[in-house]
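Key idea: predict the complex, not the pieces.
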Amino acid sequence: MATSRGYHHGDLRAALIGAALAAAEAGGPEAVSLRDLAQSLGVSTAAPYRHFPDRRALLAEVAALGFRELEQAYARAQADAPDARAALRETARAYLTLAFGRPGLFRMMFAGDLVDAADAPASLLSAAREAWEGLYRAVAAADPGADLAEVKRRAITGWSTLHGFIVLVQGGRLKGFMTEPLTEAELLEAVLEKTLTAN
Amino acid sequence: MATSRGYHHGDLRAALIGAALAAAEAGGPEAVSLRDLAQSLGVSTAAPYRHFPDRRALLAEVAALGFRELEQAYARAQADAPDARAALRETARAYLTLAFGRPGLFRMMFAGDLVDAADAPASLLSAAREAWEGLYRAVAAADPGADLAEVKRRAITGWSTLHGFIVLVQGGRLKGFMTEPLTEAELLEAVLEKTLTAN
DNA sequence: GTCGCAATGTAAGCGATGCTTACAAAAGGA
DNA sequence: TCCTTTTGTAAGCATCGCTTACATTGCGAC
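Result:
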């Protein structure tokens, strides 16, 4: 799985991001150990610190990857949709798809002390911002009559509905008797419906 | 701050839960260190393990406390309301109040590997369940005509809206240009409105 | 080409964490 | 009063993030 491998690794930085992504997809942010990554890449435990000031900086890079992927999913959804209303629906669905399709990465993107930190890297901030703007544009396009405040209100409350559902499901809060006669697929459609409802 | 203090502490278990609660309110779940708690209570680092099998079991007890508090807040809100519709609104508001008033405790309650764990203590599971039922009852009472599936749909999507907003705010996702002309108070009312909207 | 510097890697160790094991003290019932 | 159970302690293991001092190497200036 590795070539030659002299004293220098070649591209340890990229390798670390890749390995961290894999670890995160498997077990979420807390499953990423710098020591493990270093060992699996055949490198000393101090080597990662040549490329990242600390652990969170590496995680932030992975999270940025996730936001870029989300933004691209938004773009695809909007390009493929027949009209603005459908585009909004598919944008919301893309959010759910990323969250449930790659839960570890999704948890990394919202890991709390990554984006909302004084030392958050610019790559993460801009990626997160672009993803937000992809969502925002879809809401604005679907309701051309709405003013700025109204669009933001709808974008934020809709995002809240999507995000809350994901967090509750992933936290195991919606199980058994709580959902009783409803399947997860039905719930997902209900959430999508509420997300799109402009109250 | 302590009396006599012989070899035995007196009620170390309760003291640990109290200290953990205080630490959690200050800095969330990850700010709770068993060693710190033990030291602050003047006890050895191994002593806590006489009362809790591991760290998560202690955190679970604190989370259970939070759910009991939430359930009581629900009960108060519903008792004070003039009608079922208002009761539902105040129930939702109670959720927001707990979340924003005691963010550390709230984060503990939804700390991911506490409720949704094979070894979750019964005290936590029942407390979480009762809180859910408090919310569920408010939704059912507000719409007497709705069938079981519809009530659950509304309860879950409404809860998602509330919860998602809280998580996004606490994660620092709604800052600056994202909310631009809206204040947090306005957003909170918008979220409340969307929560109550039966789509 | 070669020489020197900046970039990148290593070895060793610090301090903190959760948790375990073997032992000591004390509380409380027979 | 004794003896069992409960509750505490001391010491130490493994892991983690991170730091420091040093080793190696690639690469650009001459």
